[in-house]
Specification:
single chain; about 240 residues; alpha+beta; HIT family, subunit A; six-stranded antiparallel beta sheet; 4 helices; 6 strands; globular; binds zinc ion
């Protein structure tokens, strides 16, 4: 048993840290000798391999891009996935090169949305063995959202409107399609009736990936430790970023 420090670390006093008040550091569990299987390992089903193309906002020959199943606090949260069932370090050179190109395109597309200052790009991989990269848009001017805690703020901020979310998804999908592949997110239909009906339309089937993948980077099932699993420490792969 390793004792954790009695007093919280300095970052709890940063303006970007989402919580205040008296905090205690959790006691760390003993390390497990054998880690539990991630999704897509051993007998565990791979959510990505099982998902049809129409669950994505854009699909190409070797890559797919998906959104959460509903709007969240950040203007855009997207996941880039390889079609092949591979982990990051196992990518052959072709896919490794394409990952670079896709990362650049997606960052640029998301950063071009209205009100987006920066795009954080993350790969944790503790929940699923199928390679997936997270793209999180930080709203312009929200200086407290800079850095490490952006993924937490995504769950704390009120969700953006359904209308705005669908417009953003369609913009990114259309941008990616400029270079190839197939856009599957469509812009929301304009409601010509009363303005109050805007955003009230039923969500379409695209950009939904089923109940299992809930909205938001924190709630996403594949990054959530299951009750009986040892806690995968998501933050382990996320050192402080400036
Ligand atoms: Zn897979």
């Amino acid at each position: 048993m390793h004792d954790t420090p009695a007093s919280p670390p300095d970052f709890t006093s940063w303006s970007s840290f989402p919580f205040e008040g008296d905090l205690r550091v959790k006691q760390l569990d003993d390390p497990v000798p054998v880690e539990p299987l991630r999704k897509g390992e051993g007998h565990r089903e791979c959510t990505a391999c099982a998902a049809p193309d129409d669950a994505y906002i854009w699909v190409g020959e070797r890559w797919r891009v998906r959104a959460m199943d509903r709007p969240t606090g950040l203007p855009m949260v997207l996941i880039l996935e390889s079609r092949s069932h591979l982990d990051l370090g196992d990518l052959p050179n072709l896919l490794a090169a394409e990952l670079g190109v896709m990362t650049v395109r997606l960052e640029k597309a998301i950063r071009s949305l209205d009100g987006v200052a920066r795009v954080h790009v993350n790969r944790w991989g503790d929940g699923s063995a199928h390679l997936h990269m997270w793209f999180l848009a930080r709203p312009y001017g929200r200086l407290q959202l800079r850095g490490t805690f952006l993924s937490l703020w995504d769950s704390i901020l009120p969700p953006i409107s359904e209308q705005q979310w669908r417009e953003n998804l369609a913009m990114v999908a259309a941008w990616l399609a400029e270079f190839g592949g197939r856009p599957l997110a469509e812009p929301p239909r304009i409601q010509w009736q009363a303005p109050s009906s805007i955003g009230a339309q039923t969500p379409g089937s695209s950009a939904n990936l089923g109940e299992e993948d809930a909205g938001g980077v924190i709630e996403a099932a594949e990054e959530i430790p299951e009750p009986d699993d040892a806690d995968p420490d998501r933050a382990a792969g996320a050192p402080e970023r400036g």
